[in-house]
Automatic annotation (TrEMBL):
GO terms for biological process: carbohydrate catabolic process; cell wall macromolecule catabolic process; peptidoglycan catabolic process. The gene is yegX. The keyword Protein biosynthesis does not apply. Belongs to the glycosyl hydrolase 25 family. GO terms for molecular function: lysozyme activity. The keyword Hydrolase applies. This is Lysozyme. It comes from Escherichia coli. Keywords: Glycosidase, Hydrolase. Pfam families: Glyco_hydro_25 (PF01183). Its EC number is 3.2.1.17. It catalyses: Hydrolysis of (1->4)-beta-linkages between N-acetylmuramic acid and N-acetyl-D-glucosamine residues in a peptidoglycan and between N-acetyl-D-glucosamine residues in chitodextrins. It is an enzyme of class 3 (hydrolase). PROSITE patterns: GLYCOSYL_HYDROL_F25_1 (PS00953), GLYCOSYL_HYDROL_F25_2 (PS51904). InterPro entries: GH (IPR017853), Glyco_hydro_25 (IPR002053), Glyco_hydro_25_AS (IPR008270), Glyco_hydro_fam25_subgr (IPR018077).
């Protein structure tokens, strides 16, 4: 029985080889093009989709980026920022953290004050974000955010997290988003960053707010700029593991050099 199975496998392999040779003989130009285009696609995959595994962080991290960071909220509970700042693996360390401050018209993240203070004390570049509620006045939301966050020189610009539009049309949503952005920019002296997922961006925000920096969520996919998004930050995973943090955490990269990041944060006004 084993001999018959082995013979069948050999015959199948021989027939496949003969079939491939026949295709090459009949369609030589097309065959060469097929293998060439496949090689190009593999090269592009490595370039655009290229992730390298980093064991300690428990995820694959996009290659060709040197500045890495996380974003956190109450879901990560009490964070040991000293351990976060000390973590190193495969030449990668965390250099910035976006921290949830507020949501809607009333909610203040219970861990914000602690996270805001300790991230800076441990030499991480910090940024604060507000989760936008489409059903609430934009000016009320902006005031809550500005009353909560004490910006200092060297902080990242404010962030507006836009992920839903509720019962609003896309046009109505953009109007309210614009109100929040203008109020916060006037107070901080720096254009806020807009955070959104790639799908939501294309459905509601694409073609607008191009003068603002973008932070795009697009997990395990090609680079966001391949979707026509001029981005500064890319949230590429929601399953990272970091020393000092219980549970999974979002991972991000900055699209630029250390010098470009420094220039990006310069100019933030301290808030009274």
């Amino acid at each position: 029985m084993q001999l018959r199975i082995t013979s069948r496998k050999k015959l199948t392999a021989l027939l496949c080889a003969l079939g491939l040779i026949s295709i090459v003989a009949i369609y030589p130009r097309q065959t060469v093009y097929f293998f060439y285009s496949t090689a190009i696609q593999i090269k592009d995959y490595i370039h655009f989709y290229g992730y390298r595994p980093v064991k300690s962080f428990a995820i694959r991290i996009p290659a060709n980026y040197t500045i890495h960071g996380i974003d956190v909220s109450r879901w990560q509970e009490r964070i040991d920022w000293q351990r976060v700042a000390k973590m190193r693996d495969n030449g990668i360390r965390l250099q910035f953290a976006f921290i949830k401050a507020t949501e809607g018209e009333k909610l203040v993240d219970p861990y914000f004050s602690r996270n805001w203070q300790l991230s800076r004390e441990n030499d991480l570049l910090r940024g604060a974000y507000h989760y936008f509620s489409p059903s609430v006045s934009a000016s009320v939301q902006a005031r809550l955010f500005l009353q909560t966050v004490d910006f200092a020189h060297g902080d990242l610009p404010a962030v507006l997290d836009v992920e839903e539009r509720g019962k609003l049309s896309a046009k109505e949503l953009r109007k309210r988003v614009s109100q929040w952005l203008k109020m916060v920019e006037k107070r901080t002296g720096k254009k806020p960053i807009i955070y959104s997922g790639a799908v939501f961006y294309h459905s509601n925000l694409a073609g607008y707010f191009n003068e603002y920096p973008w932070w795009v969520a697009h997990y395990y996919q090609r680079r966001p700029d391949n979707d026509g998004i001029a981005w500064r930050f890319w949230q590429h995973s929601d399953r990272g593991q970091v020393d000092g943090i219980n549970g999974p955490v979002d991972f991000n990269v900055f699209n630029g050099t250390v010098e470009e990041l420094q220039a990006f944060v310069d100019g933030i006004k301290e808030t009274p």
